[in-house]
Write a structure and sequence with these properties.
The structure is a single chain. The chain is mostly helical. The protein has 13 helices and no strands. It is globular.
Length: 235
């Protein structure tokens, strides 16, 4: 663990700290929303420890608070978290070979940790960014949830503070540097189009999963590039 912290430079550590701070704020909103919706105080804390996936947690609480079936809420959360399957293939190398590290690392696998890891060029920095971000977010999120749960009667309208926009804003800031690559831009654009086109007709979370089809556009573009370069060289 010490080697991980030594690998982080000042800029990367600052970026991780800012994301952790934003995550803690959203955690406060989640705790407040859960308790103010009439659900028990222990529920947001248990979800944050066991599930640790903001989108799935918000969906579960929203469905249960609106009178939905808890089983259906669990299934919806699992559907949203299905995106972690391709995440695992993308960052599997940072988890290590030991089963204990793989289990803990998989639990810390969320959008932010994956984004930070993929933004690094060498393996050592990828590993350091993943674990530092994962541990930091786990601590900050759970602390925020506890504060929000106990202060749920104070923060009654989280939408008024724009806390619901914190997650997408942070993720957008993380992926912007990657959009310099043409193939990545094509994949992102295709994913955005798919998500926007399907969002009015499908349950929340499903459009995001369908947006992963944009990755296929990236592969098609990469296969076409060598052929185009060959034609240019021949001419």
């Amino acid at each position: 663990m010490r080697s991980i912290w030594r690998t982080l430079d000042r800029g990367l550590a600052r970026d991780i700290a800012l994301v952790c701070l934003a995550d803690a704020v959203v955690g406060v909103s989640f705790g407040a929303i859960t308790v103010s919706s009439g659900l028990p105080l222990w529920l947001p804390m248990l979800l944050s420890l066991v599930v640790f996936a903001g989108a799935a947690q918000f969906m579960f609480v929203g469905l249960v608070a609106s009178g939905g079936n808890p089983i259906a809420a669990v299934v919806a959360g699992l559907l949203v978290n299905a995106r972690h399957l391709p995440f695992g293939f993308a960052v599997g190398d940072v988890l290590g070979d030991r089963w204990a590290r793989r289990i803990v690392g998989s639990h810390l696998m969320i959008d932010e940790t994956v984004a930070f890891a993929l933004a690094q060029r060498d393996a050592e920095r990828r590993r350091a960014a993943y674990w530092a971000c994962g541990v930091g977010l786990f601590v900050c999120w759970n602390v925020g949830v506890v504060l929000g749960a106990f202060g749920g009667t104070v923060v009654t309208d989280t939408d008024a503070f724009g806390l619901d926009a914190a997650f997408p804003a942070v993720l957008l800031a993380l992926v912007l540097p990657s959009l310099k690559d043409p193939a990545t831009r094509r994949a992102a654009l295709a994913g955005v189009v798919i998500a926007l086109a399907t969002a009015p007709f499908l349950p929340g979370g499903v459009p995001v999963l369908l947006a992963l089809a944009g990755v296929l556009v990236s592969f098609v573009g990469k296969q076409a590039e060598p052929a185009e370069k060959a034609k240019e060289a021949a001419s």
